[in-house]
Amino acid sequence: MRDLPKLSKPEAIVMAAKKVFLERGFDGTSMDEVAAHAGTTKRTLYNHFSNKEELFRTVVEKSIELFFSKLPDLDAEGKPADELERFAARFCELCTWTVAVQLQQVVISEQKRFPELAVLLAEEIVGRSVTKIAAYFEDLNNRRILECGDPQQAARLFLNLATGIQRFDALFGTVAPLSGPPGKSISRAIDRKLIRAAVSLFLEATPASQ
């Protein structure tokens, strides 16, 4: 069995802080508790992070990095229906597993205190994903495989159509979030049938150029 890479002290602190923030919220989290969970001292914690606000921002930023490390690219040579379904299903999974849902809920609850973090989370998670899809659509447009007009607008419409219902259901608690972290295969709890229907509807509205 291969040994897992050892975390640096800042990485261990951020991982511990994320766990505590998600369990207790911002106000309910103390730097003493974070230090205890990280197996370090409060002095060491403050050597890396000047205050709780900076630590919370870092947790959000590192969570965004983790999200995009697991989000696939769209293969320009693949079949559009398959590529769009695969991308949307993984995006949906990354947004609806327990830790992701908890993070979104904490950021929303702290929007008045950290308005820039709510904007950052939305612009990065949705905005960067839309940009990925838009680049894919632009390539398909140029090769006359699809005709979807404004690629950026089409990408935003597609992402909401294919994933919006499942994301909002998990965020507002009308369905339980996915229990485990995303693995190599997309969770069977993701409604692929719904995503497939959205992909089909979108592609029917953007026929290949003649």
Model description:
This protein is mainly α and 210 residues long. The protein has two domains: 60 residues, Arc Repressor Mutant, subunit A (Orthogonal Bundle); 136 residues, Tetracycline Repressor, domain 2, CATH 1.10.357.10. 68% of the residues lie in helices and 0% in strands. Helix 1 crosses helix 6 and helix 7 crosses helix 8. The radius of gyration is 19 Å and the shape is elongated. The N and C termini lie far apart (55 Å).
Task: Characterize this entry briefly.
This protein is mostly helical. The chain contains 9 helices and no strands.
Structural topology:
Elements: H1 9-24, H2 31-38, H3 42-48, H4 52-70, H5 80-96, H6 98-109, H7 115-142, H8 151-171, H9 192-205
List the defining traits of the structure above:
single chain; 210 residues; mainly alpha; Arc Repressor Mutant, subunit A; Tetracycline Repressor, domain 2; 2 domains; 0% strand
* Largest sheet composition: none
Radius of gyration: 19 Å
Secondary-structure class = mainly alpha
CATH superfamily of the largest domain: Tetracycline Repressor, domain 2
Give the overall form. Answer: elongated
The helical percent reads 55-70%
Helix-strand pattern: HHHHHHHHH
Taking the alpha carbons of the first and last residues, their distance comes to 55 Å
Name of the level-1 CATH class of the largest domain: Mainly Alpha
